[in-house]
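Lay summary. Proteins are chains of building blocks that fold into shapes, and those shapes determine what they do. In this project we predict the shape from the chain. Here is one chain we studied, written as its sequence of building blocks.
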Amino acid sequence: MKVTAGQRGDSPEFTAVLERIAVRDARGGPARCRPGAVLADKAYSSKANRAYLRRRGIKAVIPEKADQSAARKRKGARGGRPVGHDAELYKDRNTVERCIGKLKQWRGIATRADKLSQSYEAGLLLASVMIWIRST
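And here is the predicted shape, written in a compact code that computers can read:
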């Protein structure tokens, strides 16, 4: 998790968040540091983010912004190929959006009322645990 100022965009922190991923396997062994795919909305559809994912061998499931598509088409053959987009896999993003919706039911998280990032992270963790407990 990486907490930034409430008015900052998320996209500039894209690579920093992906660098911190470490998923432990229940059977033991080393942690996985590279997901098979990243599902993100159009806000993350920058050339830099796509290049980063390509370098790491991660599938990008990010729709292309309309202005980026128009600019690519204006350039003709020099604009490159259209970005690949797995529409079926992108539907799984709904799970993430529903989770964010549940987290935003907690007023302190939705309004970002905490001044300190540590307090905000603690509230986010508490809300996540409560949502998880209620779902089991």
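What the prediction tells us: The chain has a mean pLDDT of 84.
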